Amino acid sequence: MTPTDKDLLFLPLGGTGEIGMNMNLYGHDGQWLMVDCGVTFPKPGRVSADGTVHHSGEPDIQMPDPEFISSRRDQLAGLVITHAHEDHVGAVPYLWPKLRCPIYTSRFTAEVLKKKLAEHAMLHQVKIIIVEVGERVHIGPFEVEWLPITHSIPDPNALMIRTPLGNIFHSGDWKLDPDPVVGHGYKEDTFRALADEGVLAMVCDSTNATTVGHSVSESELYDGLRHYIEGAKGRVIVTCFGSNIARLLTLSHIADDTGRYMGLYGRSMVNMYQCAKRAGVWPYSAGTVDTGHLGYLPRHEVLAVATGSQGEPRTALRRLAAGTHPDFELEPGDRVIFSARAIPGNEQAIQGLIDQLTAMQVEVVTVDEAEYLIHASGHPAQEELKTLYQWVQPEISIPVHGEDVHMKAHAGVARSCGVPRSMTGRNGDLFMLRPVPGIQRQKVKTGRLGWEKGGLVRVE
């Protein structure tokens, strides 16, 4: 199946009908452009979009099977990574040997990707091209422009993909945050200009399409987090996503303002912090201390930021809860703040961790029970979706990055904004945008690969 110069196609291989392991293809004039290449971390008992029930013993790391495009590798013009979250970039070290194409991305994302590739001894094999916001790059028959948007990680980008047959706006993961704390912001005029030019299709994040209102800005979290940190008598441990550099920076400022010393626990969190410094998105005035020192400080001077907000095994917070962390042991009166919401499927693991902490007489503060704001989602609620549709004004809405309930809600929002047509589907559906819009259901076989014992295996 090779697109002709009369075809403009969208083909999701992962991330449509599910949240995680994003992999998208755009086809035109004999070539394909891949956007994002991510992983997922399945939980036993979780049901995937394709109806698969996950069980114990499966590989911990899974990703889309790229067989469709890897068997047509000569048609793959390039891979664009929109941002550095695992579900968008995490599969690159595992799948690039099957793709062997250049990778285009922003400076911060490139730093994260380089670290991943170095861990797999692949750094000098992969051609990484760093693109600045506003820059236009020709990749095969596509002209791709990087557009600044905001999300819960530095330097995320939306894409304007231009072809002679029409333009596609690919949102990536986003929100409309007027003060994202770190990284670039966004400008309304950027997106209104797209409407003036004409947008055939808008392929857009659906994660929070069922949520009314507007997401919270990262800048609004300082007061709430300070309230719970300043009011603690013992140590404070905040657990959040390590990729949220803005959250780490806010916590660094709170540590300075409350007389505490902040240390980072967990390899992924430390890696992200180092990448942020190398990419220039972490201000030199903000700092952390060597975690080995925290165990020797008075308890009321300690602010530890740890991985493990989703109850994952072998994370820093799990080790603290088990009393097996080498730096210090939690004691009654210490406080753990969960500055993150549960990803669907993780609720049981998180509750088990909370029960473990509570049994140790450690105070626990969660997003749902907190009186003040301590977390902000990185995805758009309904009012933000409406705003972006009003700015971009596409002819066709294609909801992605969500389960069926999210994508259907998203399509409803698009219709309410006057978008003439919405097309919803799932991985393996071929979305034909030109010459005649339509969907060929399950045109391409999709599946999952897992990483196990240093190699890729098919997940049944």
From TrEMBL:
<protein>
    <submittedName>
        <fullName>Ribonuclease J</fullName>
    </submittedName>
</protein>
<keyword id="KW-0269">Exonuclease</keyword>
<dbReference type="Pfam" id="PF22505">
    <property type="entry name" value="RNase_J_b_CASP"/>
</dbReference>
<keyword id="KW-0694">RNA-binding</keyword>
<dbReference type="Pfam" id="PF00753">
    <property type="entry name" value="Lactamase_B"/>
</dbReference>
<keyword id="KW-0479">Metal-binding</keyword>
<dbReference type="InterPro" id="IPR036866">
    <property type="entry name" value="RibonucZ/Hydroxyglut_hydro"/>
</dbReference>
<dbReference type="InterPro" id="IPR001279">
    <property type="entry name" value="Metallo-B-lactamas"/>
</dbReference>
<keyword id="KW-0540">Nuclease</keyword>
<dbReference type="InterPro" id="IPR055132">
    <property type="entry name" value="RNase_J_b_CASP"/>
</dbReference>
<dbReference type="InterPro" id="IPR042173">
    <property type="entry name" value="RNase_J_2"/>
</dbReference>
<dbReference type="Pfam" id="PF07521">
    <property type="entry name" value="RMMBL"/>
</dbReference>
<feature type="domain" description="Metallo-beta-lactamase">
    <location>
        <begin position="20"/>
        <end position="214"/>
    </location>
</feature>
<keyword id="KW-0862">Zinc</keyword>
<dbReference type="InterPro" id="IPR011108">
    <property type="entry name" value="RMMBL"/>
</dbReference>
<keyword id="KW-0378">Hydrolase</keyword>
